[in-house]
Design goal:
161 residues, alpha+beta, Mago nashi protein, eight-stranded mixed beta sheet, elongated
Protein backbone atom coordinates (compact mmCIF):
# COMPACT_ATOMS: atom_id res chain seq x y z
CA UNK A 1 0.00 0.00 0.00
CA UNK A 2 2.80 2.37 0.78
CA UNK A 3 4.35 1.64 -2.58
CA UNK A 4 1.14 2.54 -4.45
CA UNK A 5 0.76 5.78 -2.49
CA UNK A 6 4.39 6.67 -3.07
CA UNK A 7 4.06 5.91 -6.84
CA UNK A 8 0.86 7.94 -7.10
CA UNK A 9 2.42 10.86 -5.25
CA UNK A 10 5.54 10.78 -7.48
CA UNK A 11 3.35 10.64 -10.59
CA UNK A 12 1.34 13.68 -9.48
CA UNK A 13 4.52 15.64 -8.68
CA UNK A 14 5.99 14.66 -12.05
CA UNK A 15 2.85 15.77 -13.95
CA UNK A 16 2.73 19.10 -12.08
CA UNK A 17 6.45 19.68 -12.72
CA UNK A 18 6.04 19.02 -16.45
CA UNK A 19 3.02 21.30 -16.67
CA UNK A 20 4.71 24.14 -14.81
CA UNK A 21 8.04 23.84 -16.62
CA UNK A 22 6.64 25.57 -19.71
CA UNK A 23 5.74 28.66 -17.66
CA UNK A 24 9.01 29.15 -15.81
CA UNK A 25 11.73 31.41 -17.17
CA UNK A 26 9.62 32.96 -19.90
CA UNK A 27 8.72 36.59 -19.36
CA UNK A 28 6.00 38.07 -21.49
CA UNK A 29 7.45 40.73 -23.72
CA UNK A 30 5.72 44.07 -23.47
CA UNK A 31 5.07 45.45 -26.92
CA UNK A 32 4.57 49.20 -27.03
CA UNK A 33 1.26 50.20 -28.56
CA UNK A 34 1.61 52.87 -31.21
CA UNK A 35 -0.73 55.82 -30.91
CA UNK A 36 -3.22 55.93 -33.77
CA UNK A 37 -2.94 59.01 -35.97
CA UNK A 38 -5.04 61.98 -34.94
CA UNK A 39 -7.47 63.73 -37.25
CA UNK A 40 -5.72 66.80 -38.65
CA UNK A 41 -8.51 68.19 -40.86
CA UNK A 42 -12.07 66.95 -41.30
CA UNK A 43 -13.80 68.57 -44.29
CA UNK A 44 -17.32 68.09 -45.72
CA UNK A 45 -18.66 69.63 -48.91
CA UNK A 46 -22.30 68.95 -49.76
CA UNK A 47 -25.03 70.33 -51.99
CA UNK A 48 -24.65 72.64 -54.95
CA UNK A 49 -26.25 72.29 -58.36
CA UNK A 50 -24.48 68.97 -58.93
CA UNK A 51 -25.51 67.56 -55.57
CA UNK A 52 -21.92 67.20 -54.40
CA UNK A 53 -21.03 65.04 -51.47
CA UNK A 54 -17.36 64.84 -50.51
CA UNK A 55 -15.87 64.06 -47.13
CA UNK A 56 -12.11 64.53 -46.76
CA UNK A 57 -10.29 63.38 -43.63
CA UNK A 58 -6.58 64.13 -43.30
CA UNK A 59 -4.63 62.58 -40.43
CA UNK A 60 -1.60 64.13 -38.78
CA UNK A 61 0.70 61.49 -40.32
CA UNK A 62 -0.36 62.50 -43.86
CA UNK A 63 -2.72 59.58 -44.44
CA UNK A 64 -6.01 60.73 -45.91
CA UNK A 65 -9.29 59.44 -47.25
CA UNK A 66 -11.97 60.97 -49.45
CA UNK A 67 -15.46 59.50 -49.35
CA UNK A 68 -18.11 60.34 -51.91
CA UNK A 69 -21.48 58.80 -52.64
CA UNK A 70 -19.89 56.19 -54.86
CA UNK A 71 -16.40 55.46 -53.53
CA UNK A 72 -13.75 55.95 -50.90
CA UNK A 73 -10.18 56.70 -51.87
CA UNK A 74 -7.16 56.45 -49.61
CA UNK A 75 -4.06 58.50 -50.36
CA UNK A 76 -1.13 60.21 -48.67
CA UNK A 77 -0.07 63.81 -48.38
CA UNK A 78 3.57 64.70 -47.93
CA UNK A 79 5.04 67.05 -45.33
CA UNK A 80 4.99 69.97 -47.80
CA UNK A 81 1.24 69.52 -48.32
CA UNK A 82 0.61 69.38 -44.57
CA UNK A 83 2.78 72.46 -43.98
CA UNK A 84 0.86 74.38 -46.68
CA UNK A 85 -2.44 73.50 -45.00
CA UNK A 86 -1.09 74.59 -41.60
CA UNK A 87 0.09 77.89 -43.10
CA UNK A 88 -3.29 78.54 -44.73
CA UNK A 89 -5.14 77.95 -41.46
CA UNK A 90 -2.67 80.27 -39.69
CA UNK A 91 -3.17 83.00 -42.34
CA UNK A 92 -6.93 82.65 -41.94
CA UNK A 93 -6.55 83.13 -38.18
CA UNK A 94 -8.79 80.12 -37.85
CA UNK A 95 -9.28 80.20 -34.04
CA UNK A 96 -10.60 83.78 -34.32
CA UNK A 97 -13.26 82.90 -36.91
CA UNK A 98 -16.92 82.47 -36.10
CA UNK A 99 -18.21 78.89 -36.01
CA UNK A 100 -21.12 79.54 -38.37
CA UNK A 101 -21.44 81.53 -41.61
CA UNK A 102 -25.01 81.11 -42.86
CA UNK A 103 -26.35 82.92 -45.91
CA UNK A 104 -28.50 85.96 -45.31
CA UNK A 105 -31.03 84.81 -47.92
CA UNK A 106 -31.58 81.07 -48.28
CA UNK A 107 -31.37 79.73 -51.79
CA UNK A 108 -31.60 76.48 -53.64
CA UNK A 109 -28.53 74.52 -54.63
CA UNK A 110 -26.09 76.24 -52.27
CA UNK A 111 -22.91 74.36 -51.40
CA UNK A 112 -22.46 73.78 -47.68
CA UNK A 113 -19.05 73.36 -46.07
CA UNK A 114 -17.87 72.11 -42.70
CA UNK A 115 -14.22 72.36 -41.67
CA UNK A 116 -12.84 70.94 -38.43
CA UNK A 117 -9.29 71.85 -37.45
CA UNK A 118 -7.65 71.96 -34.01
CA UNK A 119 -10.84 71.03 -32.15
CA UNK A 120 -12.89 73.79 -33.80
CA UNK A 121 -15.53 73.31 -36.47
CA UNK A 122 -16.89 76.03 -38.69
CA UNK A 123 -19.82 75.70 -41.08
CA UNK A 124 -20.19 77.88 -44.13
CA UNK A 125 -22.56 78.30 -47.02
CA UNK A 126 -21.48 79.15 -50.52
CA UNK A 127 -22.37 82.84 -50.65
CA UNK A 128 -21.37 83.59 -47.04
CA UNK A 129 -17.69 82.61 -47.13
CA UNK A 130 -15.41 85.22 -45.58
CA UNK A 131 -12.48 86.04 -47.89
CA UNK A 132 -9.96 85.09 -45.19
CA UNK A 133 -11.05 81.40 -45.22
CA UNK A 134 -11.34 81.11 -49.02
CA UNK A 135 -7.69 79.98 -49.51
CA UNK A 136 -8.30 77.11 -47.05
CA UNK A 137 -11.40 76.03 -48.97
CA UNK A 138 -9.52 76.36 -52.26
CA UNK A 139 -6.73 74.09 -51.01
CA UNK A 140 -9.08 71.45 -49.61
CA UNK A 141 -11.14 71.53 -52.82
CA UNK A 142 -7.92 71.27 -54.86
CA UNK A 143 -6.95 68.12 -52.93
CA UNK A 144 -10.40 66.60 -53.50
CA UNK A 145 -10.33 67.49 -57.22
CA UNK A 146 -6.79 66.16 -57.66
CA UNK A 147 -7.65 62.81 -56.09
CA UNK A 148 -10.94 62.55 -57.96
CA UNK A 149 -9.12 63.21 -61.24
CA UNK A 150 -6.52 60.51 -60.53
CA UNK A 151 -8.75 57.69 -59.38
CA UNK A 152 -10.41 55.17 -61.61
CA UNK A 153 -13.99 54.02 -61.52
CA UNK A 154 -13.06 51.34 -58.95
CA UNK A 155 -14.16 52.02 -55.34
CA UNK A 156 -11.62 51.85 -52.52
CA UNK A 157 -8.58 52.61 -54.65
CA UNK A 158 -5.26 53.74 -53.24
CA UNK A 159 -3.92 56.89 -54.89
CA UNK A 160 -0.36 58.19 -54.57
CA UNK A 161 -0.13 61.97 -54.64
Amino acid sequence: MKMKTWLLLCSIVLVITVLLSGCIGQKTQIVPVAEPPAVFVDYYRTGGTAGQNAHLVIFDNGAAVISTRTASTEFSLNRTDLDRIIALFALAQYPALSTNYPVSRPGADLTNYSISYQNMTITLQETAIPPVIQPVLDELNRIVARVEAQKTDRPFVNVKL
